[in-house]
Amino acid sequence: MQANSSRMVRSGRAVLLGLSALLVGACATEYPAAPTSAATPDYNYIIGPGDSVNIIVWRNPELSMTVPVRPDGKITTPLVEDLPAMGKDSSTLARDIEKALAKFIRDPVVTVIVGGFSGPYSEQIRVIGEAAKPQFLPYKQKMTLLDVMIAVGGVTDFADGNRASILRTSEGKQYGVRLKDLIKKGDVSANVDVKPGDILIIPQSWF
Q1: What SS3 state is found at 155?
Q2: Cα 94 to Cα 72: distance, rounded to the nearest angstrom
Q3: Domains defined for the chain, CATH in brackets
Q4: What is the DSSP letter of 53?
């Protein structure tokens, strides 16, 4: 009888250990940890649909104006119709406008100032899953995971923050991040850089 009791105790312990291992596995992300540093020093903002561009043509105020970037990624100004703007930085767009205006005026000098800052879809940060406010965010130089979480209002009560991951579209890789440690525990070591085009996926807790 005592031997049976000992076997039952050992079996119970084995079950508890097995359950503990499963719970630990469920709480851990299956992806490698995201690199802490990922910002690119030479990053230039890329124009996207919904942005506004203030075009200044030196000594030609009648050609200077602010125009929106249309959903098709193009702009229209006096003497310049349907010029692609999406995917370019402000300097590149200014040079393209100068080339287009050179057909009509001599040695045009153009400056482009961008506003709105939506950026193209390929550059935006997307947050999906158990975020308080899932949405897309325009990327900003040296933007971090903490910046993203502040912008989306944190996570829901059902989020499994430490199983969250970043799909890095620019590399075709997926990395694990520790949102619970970062937000709930204030563990700044869990804060990492994000990159243009990142998708933050926040899963629901299993228990």
Answers
A1: strand
A2: 19
A3: 32-42+121-202 (3.10.560.10), 52-115 (3.30.1950.10)
A4: E
**167's tokens:** 């799909």
Nearest Cα neighbor of 29 from 176, 182, 173 is 176
User: In angstroms, how far is the first alpha carbon of the chain from the final one?
Assistant: 38
- List the structure tokens of 46: 């890329």
Token pair 């287009």 is found at 100
- Taking phi over 0 as left and psi of -120 to 50 as alpha, with beta for the rest, 139 belongs to beta
**Could you give the angle at the alpha carbon of 165 between the alpha carbons of 164 and 168, nearest 5°?**
160
Contact 81, 88 (CB under 8 A): no
| DSSP assignment of 98-113 | HHHHTTTSSS--EEEE
pTM (predicted TM-score): 0.82
Which tokens go with 145?
């995971």
The neighbour count for residue 134, using CB atoms within 10 Å, is 15
The CA-based dihedral angle spanning residues 148, 153, 157, 162, taken in that order and rounded to the nearest 10 degrees: 10
Whole-number Å distance between alpha carbons of 150 and 158: 18
61 Cα distance to chain centroid: 38
Per-residue pLDDT reduced to its tens digit, 12-50 = 444 333 434 344 444 456 899 999 999 888 899 999 999
Once rounded to an integer, what is the mean pLDDT over residues 56-80? Answer: 97
Interval 92-126: pLDDT, tens: 999 999 999 999 999 999 999 999 999 999 999 99
